[in-house]
Design a protein that fits this description.
Distance between the termini: 47 Å
Helix content: 40-55%
Number of helices: 16
Largest sheet: 2 strands, antiparallel
Length: about 475
């Protein structure tokens, strides 16, 4: 009887795998799930949460490829060449993300026998991740306007911004959106003569870059130019955008409305236990784009690199996780998002986890008299080792073919890169950052040099991978 049971289980498993291969053939090119349920749904659903909660600007195809090659490499793999920092960061992000995907290891083991299907699977995951980001961008295009007003019931834009208007009226072409984009430290100057300030930005006389925290990120009633952590990421604009995305549009204007919608929010659907710096910055970057005059998604708007802005904020919070001001900030966010998971334990393990050289850097004196904490040690990860079939070249070739042309115009990754990316200005080392250290013990094998990858891999930004290794 036990032997018969095992045979039946194996038969059902093979049938499910064949159904999944069929689903890969039927998946829409956009990565969106088909209306009928199929075995691919859980994987695409997990991928749709990748940019929201794990990394907004990562190249998910490369993350999955590097993680799979490391996890399933042979025991006698060649480790003569030291694994580079980018690949290690990709592997760590893969390990974190893979915890949210049930039975991923078993699926990959079977897909090894189907190299073309494995490549198709990775592309479908990437398309699903990009589609989710695109959906949020579209959802906030008009709804986000009301989150920019102090009181949507009474206030309005002057001049009016209507749904029928293009985004050309926003950004530095409208005083109210421009004030949100204006660096917090320049708000007093802006208020003295908004038009003069906007003219300087539009003429290129003022460079607004990621070195300067936008006033949109602050509760400006708390802002202190001598201690820039006060009020940081406590903005009503960012809070309402976060609720719109993770707890539903009905809850955006008031936390009392969280949970009233008949449809569960994305946070609850993906068992998000609490807000984290990466999903907070996801909402913040989405709102920066909404306030700008850019018509289609782009990580670079004028001199502002959203990728740089995203990772600088992530670095600050993660490097200062043990400091009281960060603990207070995270408690503040929990209070603003009650009922996210109905106080029940999470069912899955989720880890929420062109610069102008003449401009001042808001990272300077960010902590006032506080002392920056040392970087936490990277956690050791266990790897499941199985016999790797000869499909590594297929993945690298797929990456080459994939990156030969635009995937999502424009590419949704931060400006600088490491391997094979166009030359861009190097990110300046933060005065608060520790000196770069060599990567810890290698995980998996060092793959051959990756073909050109838009903006790098897990982080694709500034040659520093601290944020990705958390």
């Amino acid at each position: 009887m036990p032997e018969s049971t095992d045979q039946n289980a194996g038969s059902r498993s093979d049938e499910c795998f064949e159904a999944l291969l069929q689903s890969l053939d039927d998946t829409s090119s956009t990565g969106r799930k088909q209306k009928k349920s199929n075995p691919l749904d859980p994987y695409l659903t997990a991928a749709r949460f990748f940019r929201l909660n794990y990394d907004l600007f990562a190249n998910i195809f490369v993350i999955l490829r590097d993680g799979i090659l490391a996890e399933f490499e042979p025991e006698d793999a060649d480790h003569n060449q030291e694994q580079n920092e980018e690949t290690q960061a990709n592997i760590h992000l893969f390990t974190t993300f893979a915890k949210s995907i049930p039975n991923l290891s078993n699926l990959i083991t079977k897909l090894e026998r189907e190299p073309e299907s494995l490549t198709s699977f990775l592309k479908s995951m990437e398309s699903a991740a990009n589609a989710a980001r695109c959906d949020d961008t579209g959802s906030l295009k008009h709804a986000g306007l009301q989150y920019m007003l102090d009181d949507p019931a009474k206030d309005h834009f002057d001049p009016l911004i209507l749904k029928s208007h293009s985004k050309a009226l926003r950004g530095w072409n409208h005083p109210q959106t421009a004030r949100l984009l204006c660096p917090a430290r320049d708000v007093a100057e802006f208020d003295m003569d908004p038009q003069a300030y906007m003219d300087k930005v539009n003429a290129g006389e003022k460079k607004i870059s990621a070195k300067q925290w936008p006033s949109m990120f602050y509760d400006m009633s708390m802002y202190d130019p001598k201690n820039k952590k006060k009020g940081f990421l406590r903005s009503r604009v960012v809070i309402q955008a976060w609720r719109h995305i993770f707890t539903g549009p009905m809850s955006a204007l008031s936390k009392e409305h969280i949970g009233r919608s008949s449809k569960p929010g994305k946070g609850k659907m993906h068992h998000l236990a609490e807000p984290g710096i990466r999903n907070i910055m996801y909402a913040a970057c989405q709102m920066y784009f909404t306030a700008s005059n850019a018509e289609s998604w782009t990580p670079v708007i004028g001199a502002m690199d959203l990728g740089d802005l995203y990772y600088r904020a992530v670095d600050i919070i993660q490097d200062s996780a043990d400091q009281q001001w960060v603990k207070d900030l995270m408690k503040f966010w929990k209070d603003e998002t009650p009922g996210l998971t109905d106080n029940r334990p999470s069912k899955r393990c989720r880890v929420a986890t062109a610069n102008d050289s003449g401009t001042d850097d808001d990272m300077d004196d960010f902590f006032g008299d506080d002392t920056a904490t040392t970087e936490q040690d990277d956690q050791e990860t266990e790897t499941h080792r199985a016999q790797l079939t000869n499909n590594g070249e297929s993945l690298n070739q797929a990456a080459t073919a994939q990156n030969g042309g635009p995937h999502t115009p424009p590419p949704s990754s931060p400006a600088p890169s490491r391997i094979g990316s166009p030359a861009v200005p190097e990110r300046e080392q933060s005065p608060l950052s520790d000196p770069p250290t060599s990567p810890s013990a290698s995980v998996g094998r060092n793959t051959k040099q990756v073909a050109r990858v838009p903006r790098g891999g897990a982080r694709g930004c500034r040659g520093k991978a601290k944020s990705r290794r958390r």
